[in-house]
Amino acid sequence: MRIDKLSLGGVKVEKLYLKWDDSLHIKAAKLDLTDLKTDNTPLSLKPLSKLPDIIRMVDNWIATIYIEKIHYKSFSASLEYQKNQQGKISLLGSKNEHFIGYFDLNTTEFHFVLPAYQFNEATFSTHLDIDLTSQRLKGFITLALPQTPKMTAFFVGDTDTLSFSLQASHRFTTLKPLVSFARLEPDVVPWIAEYAKASSIQLNHLSGKFHYSNPSELLQSLKADATFFNGSYAFATGFEPIYASKIDLNFSKGKLYILPRNGTFYSLPTEQSYLTIDFSTEHTMLDAFIRTQHAKLNDPILALLKFYEIDLPIKQTLGECAVDLTLSIDLHDFNTVAKGTFTPSTSEILLDKIPLKTEGGIVHLDGTNVTFDHFIAHYGDNLASARVEGKYDATLEKGMINIDAYAVSALQGNLTLHNTNEPVHVSYIIEPKGDTLSVQPSHWNFFGEKLSLEGFSAPFDYTHASVSVNSLAFSLSNTISGSVQAVFDGMKKQTDAKLHLKQFKLGEIELQHVPLNIDIHYEDQNAHFSISNSSAWSIHQLPVLISPFDAEYKNNTIVFEDIETVLGDLFKGSFNGEYRIDEQEGTISLDNMFPISPKMVPIIDKKESLELKLNTKDDVLTISAPSLKAHFATIPKGWKISLDDISLLSNKSPLLRKYNINNGFLNLFYSGESSRYTFNGEIDYPYPLMLINDAPLSHYKFSGSHQNTTTTVRVNDRITISQTPETIHVRANNAGLNLPVLFKFLSEHSEDASHPTSNDPSPSVHMYATNSYLYLMKGRKILTDTFSAIMVDDKFDASLRYMNGTANLKIRNDLFSIEGEGFNDKFMEHLFALSDFSGGAFSFQANGKADAFDGLMRVEHTILKDYKVMNNILAFINTIPSLATFSLPNYNAKGLPVDEGYAHIAYKKGVVFVDNFTLNSPEMKIMGNGRADFNENQLEGTLTLKTDLGSALGKVPMVGYILLGDDGSLATTLSLNGKLDDPKVETAIAKEIATAPFNILKRTLVYPFLWMLDDKNTNKKSH
After folding, report:
1. What is the spatial distance between Cα 758 and Cα 300, in angstroms, rounded to a whole number?
2. Is 295 exposed, middle or buried (0-12, 13-18, 19+ CB in 10 A)?
3. Stated pTM of the model
4. Are 963 and 949 in contact (CB under 8 A)?
5. Please, what is the Cα angle at 780 between 774 and 781, to 5 degrees?
6. What is the pLDDT of residues 441-468, one digit of tens each?
7. What is the C-alpha to C-alpha distance for residues 170 and 148, in angstroms, rounded to an integer?
8. Which of 124, 776, 847, 991 has the lowest CB atom count within 10 Å?
């Protein structure tokens, strides 16, 4: 039977020839299966159960089969079969080459061998054995692909299931040919073939099993185990892959597990991290499990998360982070779901570009929801510490970051929270319509004062990192208040602020005229400060006027120029300089200093300049003037000034030079807490104004303080001076005042009365001394138990008390009067040199002007002992036989009794006139007058010595030499003239015996004036 064309369902047959000859002979030119409908299910071996019946039927009924061409899509073959002989199948390759296979068919077995066959660049060989009796099959298929080892798949099956395993002849170097041959979904191919690389890949195991009735079981039953050596796996394009010397791949239940061993990702250890690709779902899913204790939330990790549209608000710059993160990626549409936690160690992070140091804290990520809490954040070098928590929903674009600052210490510790139990609360509110910063009212400790800031809410532009604050009110201990207006633009790195001061009083610094506006512009790490108007201040009650000025901040340096300053009515000048913040050092030039007040002229030279060095290291402000060896430094709650060498300052100060203050040092301290100044120092002074134990002092140690307009100074622990605006109190104990040096000092430093230095009223001066003395000259001083004085304007009143003696002094309009009485022998012994008194009383009085006065001195009822001048006179008399009866036999033992002695003097411009000098003694009487010129060092005068004839002195064998007086006494007259320290003495009788006693008597006359002479002259005359 011949049939040209036959169509049965989707099977088309051409030129079919059928012949019966005891058996059936079948021949066809073409068998086309192209139109055969399929249900898109994998090839099933379920018909294996019917194969024995079919083979028996063929063996019984068919003698030969020859089909010239079997065609199915791109598959072409031919079939030849003859009963009881080996059958042949010929396959046509893509390049028209033929591959021939053979099969054996009988009622118990079916054998099939295909030595070689090429399909899609793959070369196959197949061997199949079917036991028709037991209905079991076994066999193997070899597969050869370019750049891959030879693979052999062994399989066994029955009528229900098929199992297989795969082996490779050696390691793979690439999976691309195998993946390409498998024709996987295009979305899956890169994750296996392109993102996975290795120097070699070892297939350890591959097996599977499935039921013919359910071929999809193959995916769940398939098991594979492979090892990548020196491998890498990139699970996101554009990012560095995971590197590991060894990567294990396991396929089980439809999932591929990628397990790096000791791997790294951006140099960070992967530790327990791994990946899975799930082929069992509708869309293949990639899950990345990032689990490591030593990760870092740095730019690569954050960029990876951002690639999957996951934004974390923090960036870690130092420290590590424990990560437990799962990324689930749909490889069809790349939709990604993330879930995990990030637990940083003690770290340095950036929170929205704000650098922070953190402790503790944890970040939770759940899809598009990010929460972080339990963070302790520190800003700057111990500038601020805060508790931080927040949340953000990326889907809703809503979130909030809450910051509770509980410790703030800015401005070198001078800005802190007023109460650490009341932290500053800041909320950063994120919303689609716009972000907002909300800050609650806060209270601060600013340089020891309470600073209160008003709360505010302001729009925040996250894209440009900009915020605008309008009229934020502040106050400082109710003494400083105002508002600030500012615009912060983070994108441009620019800030513009205006500080509006309505009141300013900080300690002794007070703004006199308000308001004061300060403009601040910050851009590109440079800042410009500007005050467009002059400002008037009061510093410690001293008016200070500061001109408008600008200052620049650039390259970590603040530069300011030509800041004109007027300090009260004292002086004015200009400041120029710079301050280097990184080095904490600077220089300041104080130029064009010009004295305004006449009283500053002696201190400041016109147009004087001064270079200053500034240092702020170790939280201490130090300003040094090298040319003056002067140093200013802050101390806890205050400052100090040190002058190492006062001479350098006196070189610039006519006032210090005038008063000879040019050798010593000074330290000045100030406490802002109590507004108190303290000072100490030492000077060597050319005027020894003080004496201790009669020794003149030229080296003075002083210390003192100034507070609330009160100044106290202590000198050598003997003199204390306290001054207020109204009074000056001077107290002395166990000290001497050197009057000659004081008079010399006042004479050399007297002010010109026609040019007063100030119209201010002078404070009253109160002086009080105990156990002290007024030094006159060597061997002469005025003792005091107590000395008190008061001076108000040009009125001076003083009183002196020693034992029972008192003296009072008054000065009015350049006129003085002094009167004293009741002073004892000890007082006289110290006042009158070369003398020793026993008993008696001393009194005196004087009045007039300092350059023209007269007075009276009186001594009563005393005995002169060891009185050098009188000793010399009487000793001389005792040595001359002719004057033997003048001797006083008891004088050497008991002294010379004196009933009274007095003198009246008149002083005028350096000349003393004595018109009545009298000394009355029971044995003799001395009287005289004279003139002493201290300007010319000249003395002239007369002295009369008398004795009663009835006395022992009257029995003198030298009557011819003595004149007899009307009063019955013997007398002789002496004349004195010449130098004060060595006058000549002459008498009309017995010149040959008068020289010695009259030379002695001249000292008696000169004596009352000796205390007025310098010590050097006294020393010449004392003997």
Report:
1. 77
2. buried
3. 0.48
4. no
5. 20
6. 988 887 677 888 898 888 887 666 678 8
7. 9
8. 991
